[in-house]
């Protein structure tokens, strides 16, 4: 008799949570999805991936230890994947205390309740390249020190070290996945890559005249999100828990992303303008990751090129707006924004 493994994915309605849930379902897991009690239902990604009816949803609150204890009892997981967070860097400057409570201390509450159960539950923490901040090493690896430059990044550093501490102090299987920027058509509309793909799609169809962005000189290491979820899964299947970077080892500026997106729909990049009101209080100039450890130990490497990633995102947003103009129904986040 084959025993079905059970996984709890927090933040399941987000980009990473949805792709991760699909991957786990395909691998035969019983998947439980944690979502915020106070949030408006936002299941469009899960509907798009055709897994909404294959996941059991459980409301919970990362600010409430009793709520976390309850979700762990109900799901009784073999593996917990924590992708939940207040994940917007800009918002973290406006709401630093809330960001610390959810993105930082929420992880401690999760770890403490897992430890208290004493059931050898494996735990994955979604760490971020933003933790490196203004540290000036050109290419970051797992040993590069952190120098966070936003409340979001500081909260992620707190969660990172607590995840490491519980591994070392309590012999728990806890791992940090330090993911550099990973994008897809499921990125939230508040992220710059999706702002660009959605904006150029609307301009190409005559729905908007231009798009206003903030700092376009920043350079990031951009990969394709579904591939990164495969790397996360591999981290959780190792005999020994270790932390890994997932990245492409390449950087491209936001301006390059804009130029490539405009080429795809054949519009002028002069329609994309900068507006200082969209600038963050502080922005990291460049982030680039070294994924050699993941390549060696996990046999993982990125496959989708930068140009292919931009093409995937832009073409999908064009299709969405075309369906909208034809009044065809579809699972879509922008129904909530119009």
What is the spatial order of strands in the main beta sheet? Answer: 3-2-1-4-5-6-11
Radius of gyration: 20 Å
The figure for the number of domains is: 2
Q: How many angstroms separate the termini?
A: 50 Å
CATH architectural category of the largest domain: 3-Layer(aba) Sandwich
Helix amount, in percent? 40-55%
Unreliable residue stretches: none
Share in β-strands: 15-25%
CATH topology of the largest domain: Rossmann fold
Can you walk through the features of this model?
- The protein has about 350 residues and is α/β, with parallel strands linked by helices.
- It has two domains: about 5-180 and about 220-245, NAD(P)-binding Rossmann-like Domain (Rossmann fold); about 190-220 and about 250-285 and about 305-335, Alpha-Beta Complex (UDP-galactose 4-epimerase, domain 1).
- It is about 40% helix and about 15% strand.
- It has eleven helices and 13 strands.
- The protein has helices spanning about 15-25, 45-50, 65-75, 90-95, 95-115, 150-170, 190-205, 225-235, 255-265, 290-295, 305-325, and strands at about 5-10, 30-35, 55-60, 80, 120-130, 175-180, 180-185, 210-215, 220, 225, 245, 250-255, 270-275.
- A seven-stranded parallel sheet has the order 3-2-1-4-5-6-11, sandwiched between helices.
- Helix 1 links the parallel strand 1 (about 5-10) and strand 2 (about 30-35).
- Helix 5 runs parallel beside helix 6 (about 150-170) and helix 7 crosses helix 11 (about 305-325).
- The protein starts with 5 loop residues before the first strand and ends in a 13-residue tail after the last helix.
